[in-house]
Amino acid sequence: MALLESDVPIREVVTTDPEKAKALENDVRAKIIDMLTMEEMTIEEIHDELGRRGEEKAETTVRHHVNVLKDAGVVEIARLEEAGGGTRKYYKSNTRIFSYDLPKDAEETLTGAQETATAELTNLVETLYEGHGDDIEAVAREMKPCEYCATQHYEEFLIRELLNRALIELHEVPQRD
Question: Could you tell me which residue ranges the HTH arsR-type domain spans (predicted)?
Fold first, then answer.
C-alpha cells in the first residue's frame, strides 16, 4: 500500500539542448550570464563583478566558466580591442535566463489570462501545423535523442522553440511610444 499517491501534472517545461544544460549546471555561470546580458565585459571585469557579488574566484576559473558558456553557445565575443600589444576580448550573452518565484496568489490572479493564452495558443499551434506541419515533422525526424530523456517529444520541443524565438523577436523590436 502506497503512503502517498498523487497525479502530478507538468507545471514547468525547460527547453534547452544538452550542451547548454551542462553549462547552466553551475551557479557562477548563471551569474556570468546575468552580468553579460546587461553589458559586454572582459574576463577581468567579470572577475571583479563576481567578487562584488560574493563569488571569490581565480581569474583562470572565471576564464574557464566563460569558455564553457562560449562553447555551449550562450556567450559570444562581442568585440575585440587592441590593448598593450595584445587583444582584449569583450564577451556578451546572447541568452536570457528567467528564474523568478511568482507571488503567492499569482496563479489565482492570472487564471483568466492563462485561459486566454491557452485558447490563443491552441489556435496558433493549429495554424502552425496547417501551414508548416510538414516542415516541423521533417525537422523532428532529424533530431537526435536527448541524453537525459527516454521519452522524446521532438515536435513539442520544436513548437516551444518557435514560440520562444517569436517572443524574443517581439521583445527585441524597439518599443513605440
Answer: 19-111
Beta partners for residue 93, in sequence order: 75
CATH number at residue 66: 1.10.10.10
Query: What region does 173 belong to: left with phi over 0, alpha with psi -120 to 50, or beta?
Result: beta
Are residue 115 and residue 155 in the same domain, yes or no?
yes
| pTM metric for this prediction | 0.70
* Residue in 17, 19, 16, 50 with CA at minimum distance from that of residue 33: 50
Q: What percent helix, strand, coil does the chain show, rounded to 5?
A: 55, 10, 35
26 lies in a domain? yes
Could you report the per-residue pLDDT of 110-143, keeping only the tens digit for each?
A: 999 999 999 999 999 999 999 999 999 999 889 8
- Is 72 in the same domain as 113? no
Q: Is 124 in the same domain as 65?
A: no
Contact at 8 Å (CB) between 95 and 171? no
Query: 28 with 51, same domain?
Result: yes
